[in-house]
Amino acid sequence: MNNKAKKPIKPIYIISDSVGGTGLKITSAVLAQFPNLQSSEIKRFPFVTESGQIEDILADAKVEQALIVSTLVNKELIAFINNFTKKIGLRHVDLMTPLTSCIEEQYQEKSLQEPGALHKLDSSYFNRVSAMEFAVRYDDGKDPKGFQKADIVILGVSRTSKTPLSMYLANLGYKVANLPIIPEARVPEELFKISPKRIIGLTTEASTLANIRQSRLASLGLKSSSLYSDRQRIQEELAYASDLFEQLGVLTINVENRSIEETAVLVEEYYRENFQLAFNHLI
Amino acid sequence: MNNKAKKPIKPIYIISDSVGGTGLKITSAVLAQFPNLQSSEIKRFPFVTESGQIEDILADAKVEQALIVSTLVNKELIAFINNFTKKIGLRHVDLMTPLTSCIEEQYQEKSLQEPGALHKLDSSYFNRVSAMEFAVRYDDGKDPKGFQKADIVILGVSRTSKTPLSMYLANLGYKVANLPIIPEARVPEELFKISPKRIIGLTTEASTLANIRQSRLASLGLKSSSLYSDRQRIQEELAYASDLFEQLGVLTINVENRSIEETAVLVEEYYRENFQLAFNHLI
Predict the structure, then answer these.
(1) Residue of A22, A36, A69 lying closest to B29 (CB–CB)
(2) Which of B26, B99, B118 lies at the smallest CB-CB distance from A99?
(3) Under 8 Å between Cβ of A151 and A200
(4) Is the fold of B12-119 the same as that of B123-282?
(5) ipTM greater than cut 0.95
(6) Do residues B259 and A125 make contact, with C-beta atoms less than 8 angstroms apart?
(7) CA-based nearest residue in chain B for residue A126
(8) B96 touches chain A (CB under 8 A)
């Protein structure tokens, strides 16, 4: 971003019959492509299921001259927005209909038009809740018994993003345990009793790790000359981890320049390939 | 879902220049509207940034007669898919262009067409990583010092979904601490030193909680006649929590019949209102 004066833009309203997270993500992704536009106010209207609610929202939208983005499944409500916005000269981007129509035409099936079908409090939902509790319980090698119960076990030296990766995967429904690799600490024997296909080793570049650890020490108010951030020591740790990963026969992922999401995609693809799972974990 | 024979459908390919999570979510949401179609195979192709990659993907798509869904920002690549799919008779749903074109026309600005602009390893990314570590560190009242550092503090009796809610909010970038409310345990005095606007109390129905706790005891192999799942005891706990929430002057959310996402929306809206924040936490 630069300091050049940016064009102000009108608010964007996101109307959803569910949480509105997907509409928000697409809108944010698109806005990120316009650095010269001043980031506009995004207003999210979740759980909209009646035309009365839409009337109120569009009355405000008219005053603010807002752009309307919708992720609704009910066709009457979508038509209602289409007509209303046309009449008052606002723009409406409907994110659901193109794919829905495409599937309806191809398979001659009508869509349910039942809002929030994805967020029902069903068993997959409870699985996700327990996956997140699992990840907290078995974070940082707290209890080696977690390894045998986990879908995925993440290994890596300090500051290779084991915890956020575990939480991100847990949020998708996977039961994840993680263990810090430290040359001085013996690896729990439980680790050798599970399938190596369930285990992922994280690695990164020594120089990056040294920088990250120095920042961490600084944030804790400690001096940076510690062994923890010493380049030589870090190289030894990474080499030790690398030997262990080889001995275990596990997939190693280099997290250098990868976001949590990117690393998570690699872990998921690997896991799904090995265990032949569909994407239904992900709802 | 019923056992009636379902129509099989062709695979759906999701082509993204980033992780592909948003395309996957929209596709899953749309497919959930077609219960009579056999859930199709969804193949995700993340980090696609070159036409060579697309050629390979579309060659496979042709063999499988797949439906193509894309979330790409590069117009040449989108045009490439459009042309190619038209030529070989496949359908293509482009989720990004409608909103992008709408903004381009309205503000006479060209989009950057820079893939993955949202997932850059920038400061907001590192904030999110540390938010997730924060949530693990200050889960379950482990350390009352967390309350003063947290954006949001979640309170509630056992099994009101404090942990998954905290992890979900952490994944969005909020620093969240949580504390179980137990009549016999004194509430840490740190809680009275922070703004009540940062605190959320969770409550639910006693009967639901009794069922959830009974399942939990069963899953731990314990008998269900424990005090933990006793209806009278649960009512006392909820009343105690309710008094505390009132005394603190905090917002109370009833999580009965709400998914984590739904509760999280309410928490976020409340937090954003109080602290006048935009949605940039959410990227």
Answers:
(1) A22
(2) B26
(3) no
(4) yes
(5) no
(6) yes
(7) B259
(8) yes
Contact A248, A196 (CB under 8 A): yes
* CB spacing of A102 vs B91 below 8 angstroms: yes
Residue of B nearest to A93 (CA): B99
Residue range A12-119, CATH number: 3.40.50
Tell me whether residues B260 and A128 touch, CB distance under 8 A: yes
Longest dimension (CA), chain A: 71
At B64, list the tokens: 């499988």
Residues 6+ apart with CB under 8 A from B218: B224
How far is Cα B138 from Cα A240, in angstroms, rounded to an integer?
31
Chain A CB contacts of B174 below 8 Å = none
Domain ranges of chain A: 12-119, 123-282
B162 is in an annotated binding site: yes
B72: three-class secondary structure by DSSP: coil
Has domain B123-282 been given CATH number 3.30.470? no
Written as tens digits, the pLDDT of chain B (283 aa) is: 444 577 888 999 999 998 788 898 899 889 889 988 876 688 889 889 999 999 999 999 999 999 999 999 999 999 999 999 999 999 999 999 999 999 999 999 999 998 865 555 556 667 788 898 899 999 999 899 999 999 999 999 998 999 999 998 998 889 999 999 999 888 999 999 999 999 999 999 999 888 888 877 777 777 766 777 788 999 999 999 999 999 999 999 999 888 888 899 899 989 988 886 644 433 2
Tell me which residues of chain A, numbers 256 to 275, contact chain B at a CB-CB cutoff of 8 Å. 257, 259-262, 264-265
Diameter of chain B measured on Cα atoms:
71
